[in-house]
């Protein structure tokens, strides 16, 4: 499918760009061709590497992003969708979308002594919970102000369910911050109501 789109787009771009060699066409027909070329370019972007790798796309906002060795996690926000993507730099192995009418994301957090806090977004999928968390260590810890983030996977429906895996993010930049956790698109998540999820991950 991708190669077909690429070939078709190449022909369109060639037709639009080589006006001197092509038969004379009206301005209206030329504009129609340009519109088709634009749509083809958009289709290539949506079906190309940007759509295959677990990263945020052009029209999305980065909520969280981290490379865990050979694996990558991205949480991305569109106007009416919140997405969790996991995979390699070549392909997305798991994508969970949360949107109005099909909510799978939950948001919560905890506050500790000394001003420390942790916030998380939990994505539910087939009995598994994928908890993306980001924290700032408080003044009562050995590392006050340090930013720590990662992903914890739980198998079950409560925070007391068995832990499957925890990934600790080796980065501590803007895309691992808690700031974006507070600006999630409206109606794409629900607040945590089960206290067992209000934990330090």
Rg over C-alpha atoms, rounded to the nearest angstrom: 22 Å
- Note poorly predicted spans: 1-22, 43-51
Rounded mean pLDDT score: 83
Discrete helix count: 3
Helix content: 10-25%
Terminal CA distance reads 42 Å
What does this structure look like?
The protein is built from three helices and ten strands, in the order αααββββββββββ. With 201 residues, the protein is of the alpha+beta class. The chain has two domains: 2-47; 54-197, no CATH class. It has a six-stranded mixed beta sheet, with no helix packed on it. The protein has a four-stranded antiparallel beta sheet with strand order 1-2-3-4, with no helix packed on it. β1 (61-68) and β2 (71-78) form a beta hairpin. The two termini are 42 Å apart.
Short key terms for the protein model shown above:
201 residues; alpha+beta; six-stranded mixed beta sheet; four-stranded antiparallel beta sheet; 36% strand; elongated; disordered N terminus
């Amino acid at each position: 499918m991708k190669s077909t789109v690429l070939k078709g787009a190449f022909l369109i771009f060639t037709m639009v760009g080589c006006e001197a060699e092509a038969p004379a066409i009206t301005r209206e027909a030329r504009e129609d061709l340009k519109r088709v070329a634009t749509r083809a370019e958009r289709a290539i972007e949506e079906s190309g590497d940007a759509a295959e790798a677990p990263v945020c796309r052009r029209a999305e906002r980065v909520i969280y992003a981290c490379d865990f060795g050979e694996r990558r996690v991205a949480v991305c926000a569109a106007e009416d969708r919140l997405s969790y993507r996991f995979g390699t730099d070549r392909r997305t192995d798991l994508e969970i979308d949360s949107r109005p009418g099909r909510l799978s994301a939950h948001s919560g957090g905890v506050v500790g002594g000394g001003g420390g806090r942790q916030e998380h977004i939990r994505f539910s999928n087939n009995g598994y919970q994928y908890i993306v968390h980001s924290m700032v260590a408080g003044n009562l810890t050995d590392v006050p102000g340090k930013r720590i983030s990662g992903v914890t996977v739980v198998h079950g429906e409560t925070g007391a369910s068995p832990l499957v895996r925890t990934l600790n993010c080796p980065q501590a930049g803007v895309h691992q911050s808690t700031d974006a956790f507070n600006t999630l698109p409206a109606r794409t998540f629900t607040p945590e109501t089960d206290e067992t999820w209000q934990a330090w991950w």
